[in-house]
Specification:
Layout: H1 9-17, H2 22-38, H3 50-59, H4 64-83, E1 87-88, E2 93-94, H5 114-131, H6 134-145, H7 148-153, H8 161-166, H9 171-194, H10 205-210, H11 235-257, H12 264-269, H13 271-287, E3 297-300, E4 314-317, H14 321-339, H15 361-384, H16 389-393, H17 396-404, H18 409-426, H19 431-441, H20 445-448
Antiparallel strand pairs: 1-2, 3-4
GO molecular function: DNA-binding transcription factor activity; transcription cis-regulatory region binding
GO biological process, one term: positive regulation of transcription by RNA polymerase II
Keywords: Nucleus
Length: 461
């Protein structure tokens, strides 16, 4: 959960806060139990001490990790609901808790530290992402999105002149930024899965600036030597700024490819202009990348009989995990730009083409397919290099888009295996993407020579 922001807020600070705040304790236990319950890898390979041996025995028990995950999730929800309930001062009675998806998470809440509620909600979002529970995942994200107005208005953080004089960040600011970026990446992925627009306002530049993105008024990265420019930023922080910029661009692209509203004619009139703007922004972003975003090593893998594919024969190694994730997202974006390219902008249809020239549709399709396969191979090569778990967690949607570009049964089989390995080893659902790909390919696991899996019996509700 700290992968994008890079400070150890969820992996370290939350553990300290959990000692005093049951909400964080219950939410963290829920996520851990659910993830362990959904893993198909034997826990015996992970055991390191006596306590872990005891935990591993729970997997063989009557209840299992899934039950404990659901139990602690319910306890976290109840704790959160109590903290946001309206209290009648006269009768001293607590009314029915407000819906978590109504956006009242921080409003009228005086029983719990608002920052704790923000972090707790982020963990609950992660809980729902593990199983891609569409409605619950969406509900928590919608609730969190309503908090952004409070962040933007400064309603949550009270300036502390003592801290500001010594160090520009208080812990509350760090928690806020960690929560924001965790929300944004989940909002991006859930919106893409649900084929809807993102909840975060990509045009609210002040919000993005407050959360650490160095951005000019035209929406581009401030690549200059001004105090708030990229060139004036310490070198170790530039990679993070560039990653933030790519995530914002990808949010804009997800908004672009979302289904059109009822006002079709108006949207179509701006379709080409909007697409051209987005494509130019990705081009500009690529031109200012630091060396960290280029693979440190490219290796050809030995081909086995069932892996004779140019999509799966390379590994791209990155020394910076954040950069490898960012490049996966970049190649995902490039594939989406090719897939959703307006017909007026296809090669051979531009105004510069001779009036007498005929449009070679087959040649155009082959050109697009070749570019799609290149970007798909880049995503697959990054995962082939067995990056850390945090990178694999964010690989599901890029792999899905790469899978749409697989045209042979062998490529399709290898792609499904890659998605299934992520679920087996990390305990995060990928079967919904497997089903989508099989449907689009008009094939089945049996046809591809793969095992037809039953639902994981340990999966939490």
């Amino acid at each position: 959960m700290d992968h994008l922001y890079r400070y150890e807020v969820f992996s370290r600070e939350v553990l300290s806060l959990a000692r005093e705040h049951p909400l964080l304790r219950y939410a963290a236990c829920a996520v851990a139990a659910k993830q362990l319950g959904q893993m198909r890898t034997s826990l015996s390979t992970m055991v390191r001490g006596k306590t872990q041996e005891h935990l591993a025995r729970l997997a063989q028990g009557r209840l299992g990790f899934g039950w404990f995950g659901a139990k602690y999730y319910e306890m976290a929800i109840q704790t959160l609901a109590k903290s946001i309930s309206r209290t009648d001062a006269a009768a001293n009675l607590v009314s029915t808790p407000m819906s978590l998806s109504q956006g009242n998470l921080m409003v009228h809440a005086d029983k719990e530290d608002p920052i704790v509620r923000l972090l707790g909600t982020c963990i609950l979002i992660q809980y729902e992402q593990l199983s891609a529970s569409r409605n619950a995942w969406s509900g928590h994200l919608t609730g969190f999105s309503k908090l952004l107005s409070l962040i933007d208005d400064g309603g949550l953080l009270i300036p502390n002149p003592v801290f500001e004089a010594v160090y520009p960040f208080t812990k509350d600011v760090m928690y806020m930024k960690a929560g924001f970026w965790n929300f944004v990446v989940n909002d991006l992925e859930e919106s893409f899965v649900s084929r809807r627009k993102t909840r975060v306002d990509t045009n609210n530049l002040s919000l993005w600036r407050n959360m650490g993105l160095l951005i000019d008024d035209d929406g581009t990265v401030a690549n200059d030597v001004t105090p708030n420019g990229l060139l004036s930023t310490p070198e170790h922080a530039r990679d993070k700024v560039l990653s933030f910029a790519l995530v914002r661009l990808l949010c804009m692209l997800v908004d672009y490819v979302a289904p059109l509203s009822s006002n079709l004619n108006l949207l179509l009139s701006h379709d080409t202009t909007a697409f051209g703007y987005l494509e130019s922004r990705f081009d500009s972003w690529l031109q200012i990348l630091s060396p960290s975003f280029h693979a440190d090593g490219t290796f050809l893998t030995r081909r086995s009989d069932d892996q004779d594919s140019d999509l799966f024969n390379r590994e791209l190694w990155f020394s910076n995990d954040l950069c490898s994730t960012t490049m996966m997202y970049y190649h995902m974006a490039r594939m989406l730009l090719l897939i959703h390219r307006p017909s007026d902008l296809l090669p051979g249809t531009t105004s510069s083409a001779p009036a007498s020239a005929s449009f070679d549709l087959l040649l155009t399709f082959r050109d697009i397919e070749q570019k799609l396969r290149y970007h798909a191979s880049e995503v697959i090569a990054i995962i082939n290099a067995t990056p850390c778990d945090a990178v694999k967690l964010r690989a599901i949607q890029p792999l899905y888009v790469a899978g749409r570009c697989c045209t042979t049964a062998n490529d399709q089989r290898l792609l499904i295996k890659m998605l299934r390995n992520i679920e087996d080893n990390l305990g995060i659902a990928t079967d919904y993407r497997v089903k989508s790909l099989l449907s689009e390919w008009r094939t089945s696991c049996d046809t591809l020579g793969l095992e037809t899996r039953l639902p994981n019996p340990n999966r939490s509700p």
